Structures are given as structure tokens and as C-alpha cells.
Amino acid sequence: MKNIFVPLLSAVLLTSCATTNYSYDGRAFRKAYESISQDDLKRDLYIIASDEMEGRQTGSEGQKKAGRYMIGQYQKMGVSFPAPLKSYYQMVPQAFMQTKTRGGSLPESENILAYIPGSEKPEELIVISAHYDHVGTRDGQIYNGADDDGSGTVALMEIAEAFQNAKKAGHGPRRSVLFLHVTGEEHGLIGSDYYSQNPVFPLANTVANLNIDMIGRCDPENCGKDYVYVIGSEMLSSDLKKINVEANNKTVKLELNYKYDDPADPQRLYYRSDHYNFAKHNVPAAFFFDGIHADYHKPGDDSDKIDYVALQKRTQLVFATAWELANRAERIVVDGKNTR
């Protein structure tokens, strides 16, 4: 009996330790979660949304300069690119840009991808996305896009660093995590459309997409509240909303506002950011958003107007949600219909 019991006991203890380490109360999660800081978010955003980047118009030198900064940060973290790509860039050809644009002429551009392979289920993938383009300059004024979507861009980088910190401590994600910075969102969700048609990893293996597009400000209805809009989280999976709610309850305790989930809402925001290019391929998706404020697509969308406390909390919420998606025993179910 001894020879049977001891290995079984060891297996039970190992399983228990793994469960504890990956729980919201575990040391691994808490250290990674707490590494998401206002100082880091602010440092990166003041660079990404600086005048030097000239508004990050799709395909412009300013956008490429922002991309090079982002890649430099990933290299400092030790977070590499997906091996099939050979670099951090997924090129979006000019021919594709031209067929998808809402108007005008766009040059070739790039999605930027960083990647942490899973330790136990590397073939299964969580995609966390944000667009890093903005609208450039108009009438001699630079539209810096600090909230849209500089906030999502720097949040994505902080989430990657949090996962990488956990990996360095021996608790890397069980499933793979792809950090997808897409181009051309402002011209019709072009970069995410290209990725969804040319995925680096099969969409059938993509468990979920968490998309971040504007999480650094407040809209007139909610200023003074600790909140975030969550859009589409139960459209395709009954699990995804539950996981997001639990992650919120265990961490930042924001008010989760589902106003834009209403099929009758005239803004139709479910269709208007990059998550939709995953949802239309039956990949469960949730979109995190702060609302429409006075500086939306205006030259006043600058880094000094960002609420860095709110940006930190919303970033931590997305990380906590991704942590559970990446580390739970079973992938989430796909049991809903994208009917809107």
C-alpha cells in the first residue's frame, strides 16, 4: 500500500498546489495582478500618444514609430513573437487595405503580435486585442488618440508583462496568450479582419477574444463612478460573462455596465470594434470600453486627460479575466448565437 499511496498523495498535493497558484487568491496571480501599475501605463501612454507619433494614422511613419516602441518594450519584457511569423509583424498588404477601407487611399500596414506559449495546452489560445492606429493629423492639428486607443495599447502591454512576470516565477499560462495590436481600426476594422482571415493560429483553437478599445476616460453618464462597459460577453458563450463577473468580484469590483448589449441600442457598438471580427467567426468575445466622451476623435484626446486610476483598474480586470480563461481546466463553451 505504501508504494501506491505515496505517489497518489504526491499527485493530490501537486494538483492542490497548482489550483492554489492559479486561483485569484494565489500568490502567483496576486503578484502578477499587482504588477500592473499606473506609473507604467502613464509612461508608455505619454510616448504612444505623443506629438512625435503624429496621430498614428494607419500606415504612417508615426504609427510605425509607435510600433517600434511597442516592440522594444516587448523585447525588454522577454516576450517574443509567434514563431510562424518570424517577427512581431503581420503585414497587411496594400491590396487588402484598399478593398476594405471606408474611403481614401491607404498604404501597406502591420499588425503587431506578441506571444506567450501555454505550458499545458499550448494549442489553445486566448487573444487579447487593441488597435494602435488613430486618425493622424487634420488641419494642422495632431489627434493624439490617448484614449482611442492609446489606452488599450498600453493596457495590452501591461497585461503581457503581468503574464510574463508569472511565467518567470514558474506560473506561466496553461493556454497560450496572443497579444494582438491591430492596424486600420479607424478605417473599418481592417487589421482584425485581416487577422481573422489569415490567423497565425487556427480560429478553431481560439478560446476567446478580449478586446480593449478606450478604457482611460469616462462618459457624461458615468463620470465619478468606478465602471466599465462590457459589450458582447454573453453573445456566444454562457461562460464568458460569468468568468468576467467573477473576476471583477474577486478583484477591482467595478460596476459592469451592459447598456450597449441592448440589440436596440442605436450606437450598435457590438459591431464597431475589433472583437467583432472574432465574434463573426464564432469566437466568444468581450469588448471593454469607457463610453463616448467630448474628446472622442477630437484633438483634445491627450494623455494628461486620462484617469490613470480607472485605466489601471480596467486593465487589471481584463488581466484577471484572461488569467481565468488561460488557466481553467476546460475551455469555455460556445453555446450562443451571434444573431445581431
Automatic annotation (TrEMBL):
PROSITE patterns membership: EF_HAND_1, PROKAR_LIPOPROTEIN
Xref: Gene3D superfamilies: Zn peptidases
Domain Peptidase M28: residue ranges: 111-320
Entries under InterPro entries matching the protein: EF_Hand_1_Ca_BS, M28_fam, Peptidase_M28
Stated name of the protein: M28 family peptidase
Source organism (scientific name): Kaistella pullorum
